[in-house]
Amino acid sequence: MATGKFVFQEVSLPQQKPHYNGLLFPAVLSPNLIGTKSTTIQLFDFQEAIKAHKPWLESLLNKRGAILFRGFPVTSPSDFNDVVEAFGFPEAVYVGGRASRTQVVGRVYTANECPPGKGIPFHHEMAYVPDFPTKLFFFCDEEPGEGGETPIVLSHIIYDKMKERHPEFVAKLEEHGLTYIKVASDVDDPSSFTGGSWKSAYKTDDKSVAEDRASKLGTKLEWIGNTAKIISGPVPAIRSFDSGRKTWFNSLAVSYNGPASEKIYNGNTSVELGNGDLVPDDAMVDFLNILEEECVAIPWKKGDVLLVNNLMVLHSRRPLLKPPRRVLASLCK
């Protein structure tokens, strides 16, 4: 796609994977200055190209699930905020979220403040509430020394493979959905990837206000002193969006506390089927293995911007092996 200054060109990376239709996942776009009068591009050029070709970029996102923008002049959180603003998507408010996050600038926040040496399991952002974001932006402000990737995977592939291996479990998921439970104190715990306090989750220090805001999200709060037991659901675990394909739309891997997840279990969450049945551990073992087999993990480079369709794609975080690393996020409706 051409602009007055440069051409969006699709490039390939060794980590990409072809799926069903042969298209590579994710799409990777870089600037192509061949045939232009420029030798470099400015942030303004990138912003104008986004605005000029937003329909094409949205179409690409909906076909491929995610777009990695690499090689563009995005050098700071403020630049990243300008890129997010250029797309013009409404901001999604992080009410009822589970993570500790801090505003950096404008619509830009820390992605998760738990120690970077800890991994974060695959999930669809805020799949446990009805008002979830549809698009996620990530920005690499500091390139990791080693590790710290943000793996992504197409959710319909997970659904198809799980239905093939565990049809009875998937049928129960489709019928009953999932109920998520989290025990949250009144102070953030940045050592946990689901360590946000109930005060942070519901943007208040008033229990009554928190209860009201939770109720609007289909969530119940039970109090144990100043600690809240947050019960969300039952909510759908399998969804069909515009594509008509069924997707594995849940946060099961983040919340499960059985033997299959003992290496990554966070300590303050649990999950069960909407009818109260336990999630079978053998299905979880296969589920976690399928995620790793099918995901794409592209090492971050400084300035990368990753746009993810949250309706189609699960994301996670691998442990950082060699610092530094700073990846920021912005959530959109």
> What is the number of domains?
2
Provide the spatial order of strands within the biggest beta sheet. 1-4-5-18-9-21-7-6
User: Quaternary state, please?
Assistant: single chain
- Report, as a whole number of angstroms, the end-to-end distance: 25 Å
Radius of gyration: 20 Å
Share in helix: 25-40%
Principal-axes geometry comes out as globular
Q: Main β-sheet, in a few words?
A: 8 strands, mixed
* CATH secondary-structure class of the largest domain: Alpha Beta
Give me the CATH architecture of the largest domain, please: 4-Layer Sandwich
**How large is the share of residues in beta strands?**
25-35%
Provide the CATH topology of the largest domain. Double-stranded beta-helix
Please tell me the overall pLDDT: 94
The parts where pLDDT drops under 50 for at least 5 residues are none
Count the E strands: 21
State the secondary-structure class.
Answer: alpha+beta
Q: Mind explaining what this structure looks like?
A:
- The protein is α+β, with helices and mostly antiparallel strands.
- The protein folds into 2 domains: 7-147 and 299-332, 4-Layer Sandwich (Double-stranded beta-helix); 155-292, Clavaminate synthase-like (Double-stranded beta-helix), CATH 3.60.130.
- Helices cover 26% and strands 28% of the residues.
- The protein contains 9 helices and 21 strands.
- It has helices spanning 43-52, 54-64, 77-87, 155-165, 167-176, 198-202, 207-216, 252-255, 281-294; strands at 7-10, 17-19, 23-25, 27-32, 66-69, 103-105, 108-110, 120-123, 135-142, 146-147, 152-154, 178-184, 219-224, 227-235, 239-240, 246-247, 269-273, 305-309, 313-317, 320-322, 326-332.
- It is globular.
- The two termini are 25 Å apart.
